[in-house]
Design a protein that fits this description.
Number of helices: 5
Low-confidence stretches: none
Oligomer: single chain
Radius of gyration: 16 Å
Strand content: 15-25%
Strand order of the largest sheet: 3-2-1-4-8-5
Order of helices and strands: EHEHEHEHEEEHE
Mean pLDDT: 91
Largest sheet: 6 strands, mixed
Number of strands: 8
Helix content: 10-25%
Structural class: alpha/beta
Length: 186
């Protein structure tokens, strides 16, 4: 497979009700560049693992699962840092947890194009809606008004809230500074 320009990184644990919609949101992405999808299942016990395996079997050149035999988060491990980021081949990483989903087929294309055109930016993010378990819109905006702007490097370091499922950032960190473990977002 051609080296991916973007890696989709997904953490999941007992998300059986949601993981299909999450993965379908990844598969619907329309990009003019190659992507890879890494799904880390942290020893789910509800059938999530089997669903992820089903998709990985169906898309072996696109979906790369990491299955844990013991829950790593409960052992104090950071699954993104310890297991997913070291495997990510993309120049960019987009995050989406297993109980969230994307509904815009051009999400990755738009964010990667923006980052490619703006080398002084390290991250792109956007707003998101809140929906309930059956898909009813609870709120059209999860992002507070004061955060609908470009964030400075100082605001990023301070850990200003960014919605995890909306992040797409440059895959540049190999060593993680202490500040990383103090921010709200993974």
């Amino acid at each position: 497979m051609e080296k991916p320009l973007a890696t989709v990184a997904c953490l999941t644990f007992n998300h059986k009700k949601y993981i299909r919609q999450t993965i379908e949101g990844f598969l619907m992405q329309q990009t003019d560049f190659p992507i890879e999808i890494i799904i880390h299942d942290d020893n789910s016990t509800d059938g999530t693992t089997q669903i992820v395996q089903e998709y990985a079997d169906q898309y072996p050149e696109l979906i790369f699962p990491i299955f844990q035999r013991e829950n790593q988060y409960s052992k104090g491990k950071k699954p993104l840092i310890n297991f997913v980021f070291p495997q990510a081949k993309g120049k960019y990483i987009a995050l989406c947890e297993g109980d969230d989903y994307w509904n815009d087929p051009l999400k990755l294309q738009k964010q990667v194009e923006f980052l490619e055109a703006n080398p002084d930016y390290v991250i792109s993010y956007h707003n998101a809606m809140i929906v309930d378990e059956v898909g009813n819109i609870v709120d059209y905006s999860k992002l507070p008004e004061n955060l609908k702007k470009d964030l400075s490097s100082e605001e990023l370091i301070q850990g200003t809230m960014i919605l995890t499922l909306t992040m797409c950032f440059r895959n540049v960190l190999k060593d993680f500074p202490d500040e990383f473990f103090k921010v709200y977002n993974g």
